[in-house]
Amino acid sequence: MILFVSGRTDVLSYYPKWFINRIKEGFIDTRNPFNNNLLSRIYFKDVDLILFCSKNPHPFIKYLDELDSLLNIPKVFHITLTPYKEDIEPVISNIKQIVIDDIKYLAKRYRKNNIFLRYDPILKNKKYNLSYHLKAFNKLINLIYDSISNVVISFMDLYKNTYKNNEKYLRLEDFSNKEIEILAKEFKKITSNFNIKIFTCGEKNELLEFGFNKGACLSFEYAKKLLDLYQRNYKLEKQTARKGENIACNCVKMCDIGSYNSCLSMCRYYYANFNEDEVKANYLMHNDDSSLLIGNLKKDDIIKIRKK
C-alpha cells in the first residue's frame, strides 16, 4: 500500500506526534469522508511507501530519526512553497525561510530526487499577477535548485468550498492563453537552467508543447523504482478520480489518511477546508493517542482492514 500523508490536511505541521504514535502502535484508522461510521484500518506492516505532503514540515523534523528506525520503506516529500502574503495564507506566510531550510535538510537526508517542490496553486488577481509569479518563481528556484529535482505546478481551481473566499480574499482573474504561454515558457527556462524537471498536476493542459515533462505526483515509473530499491513487492494500480472530479491524474493509487476541515493553516484557496469554525472544533477534538486523526472510536463504527 502507498500512504498519502496527506492531501486533506497538513499532518506534518499540526499532527506530527500523533502520526509517530500511530506508527509505534502499528496501525492507523481513517474515516470514510462520505460515510462517517465506516472506517479503514491500515497496518503499517502493509505500507510499502509514504508520500508526505506539507507546507511546513518543520514540526516533524525532530521525529525523523524515529520514523526511519520504525519504517524502512521509501519516503517521498512534496513541499509546497507559494509566494502569497497574509491575505491568502494567513498563518504560514511568514515561515518561508524555515521551509526553505527544511527542504535543504530533507534533500541531504533523503536525496534530492525524493524532494518535490510544489508551486501550487497559481492564482491570479491584481496583486498576484503574471509578473509577480515570474519574479517569485525565479527567486525561489535560485534559492533551492540544489535541493530538488522536480517541480509541480497547478493553476487555481475555484472549488465550491472556496467560492465564499473569492469575493473577500482571492478576487480571482483568469490567465489569458498568452499569459499561460509566457508563464510556461519562463518556468521551463528557469528550471532547465538547473536540470530540474517541471510538470503539472491535475491539469487538462499539461503544457507539454512548452517543454514541460509528462509527469505525476507519484508516477508508476518513479514508484516502481523506489519500491525495487527497497525490495518491496507491491502491485501498483492507477489512482481513480473520486465521484464528481474532473482532473487529469497520472498518479498511482494512494490512501489518504487525513481528514477534511482539520488544517489550521487556513489558506484561502484550500479545497479541504470549507468551514473555519469546524476546523477549530476538530482540532480541539484531536487526541495524539487516538487511532483517528480527529476524535475517538465510537461504538457503532464499522472497521474494515485495508491492504491496498
Short recap of the structure:
By secondary structure, this protein is α/β, with parallel strands linked by helices. The protein has helices at 11-14, 16-25, 58-61, 64-70, 96-110, 130-144, 163-170, 177-192, 220-229, 276-285, and strands spanning 2-5, 27-32, 35-43, 49-54, 75-80, 115-122, 150-155, 197-200, 255-256, 302-306.
Explain how this protein is built:
This protein has 308 residues and is α/β, with parallel strands linked by helices. Helices cover 32% and strands 18% of the residues. The chain is built from 10 helices and 10 strands. It has helices spanning 11-14, 16-25, 58-61, 64-70, 96-110, 130-144, 163-170, 177-192, 220-229, 276-285; strands at residues 2-5, 27-32, 35-43, 49-54, 75-80, 115-122, 150-155, 197-200, 255-256, 302-306. The strands form 2 sheets. The chain has a 7-stranded parallel beta sheet with strand order 8-7-6-5-4-1-9. Strands 2-3-10 form a 3-stranded mixed beta sheet. A hairpin with a 2-residue loop joins strand 2 (27-32) and strand 3 (35-43). The longest helix is centred in the middle third of the chain and has 16 residues, at 177-192.
